[in-house]
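Second opinion, please. Please look over this fold, written as tokens:

===
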Amino acid sequence: MDFKLTEEHLMIRDAARDFAKNELLPGVIERDEKQEFPTEQVKKMGELGFLGMMVSPKYGGGGMDTVSYVLAMEEISKIDASCSVIVSVNNSLVCWGLETYGNEEQKKKYLTKLATGESIGAFCLSEPEAGSDATSQRTTAIDKGDHYILNGTKNWITNGNSADYYLVIAQTDREKKHKGINAFIVEKGMEGFEVGPKEQKLGIRGSDTHTLNFNDVKVPKENRIGEDGFGFKFAMKTLSGGRIGIAAQALGIASGAYELARDYSKIRKAFGTEICNHQAIAFKLADMHTQISAARHLVMKAAWDKDQGNNYDMSGAMAKLYASQVAMDTTVEAVQVHGGNGYVKEYHVERLMRDAKITQIYEGTSEIQKIVISRGLLKD
């Protein structure tokens, strides 16, 4: 069992850490407060290759492995989870889905721009009545021969207003149920495609989350991904990998909060000594560090499974389930360690606590992860 990272892995981790501290930390509180999309920061992430890390160099990507990706995700998430979710969606859901299942024309037209950060992508599965129950798609795509007519609504879409390209899941044949679902590439600006108001969110407030409306949007047939009826499988396969990215985000939120709490405990004094010398605080730090280490092993195992070509449905689900719980537990305790200061924005931990909650919800709630895990355990 070799747990050592390669020199390349360490370089990527350090590059992401430096970028987060130098480029993301300044202004992160203000962006959260104003719900301001990090336009300049996203541009720089694209230039540094963070938006297409795992894409083949043939299409402008970094050609890196999943371990490299989760290392970068953890470091970025320590500082700004709003930026890391943009990285996650573009890498895990949009670029990976297109490279794995798209045809050559789609890759040349869309993937090259997405991998370099010239364009940003969005993944559109959730609907008002189809969140965890992804089979209940109300959005329809009617086959008209050389094109489809798309109608419906998508909710809670990350990069909703900032994306250039949208991967949209829609029902073509309701009688076939999940086998009648397709995935389409929709371009911003297509007639009938409207972006709704921005959601007012508890956390990850810097990322723009919108409702999308499709009113008789004409989508060319060549924009369908895969064969007719492949959409549901496409969505589930893509989400399995996406969960690894969100697990890494949760891990980063947790480790960021822990580091802030640890450092604060060394300078804050109470009863004549630094509070880290009190067992009540020292034991909190011990629990936090232990849980984060366990979460990191699960995240790395899931990333390794994906890189090795193993089935990562269960390992990805376990990583997300546990890491998201650790993110919640750790951030709450980090606020507690900070005492009254933990409730104040300038100390960052209250933002991390708010950011942590969504990791238990998006790309499959914790309850959905338990379904995936239990099915894997019981299928034989």
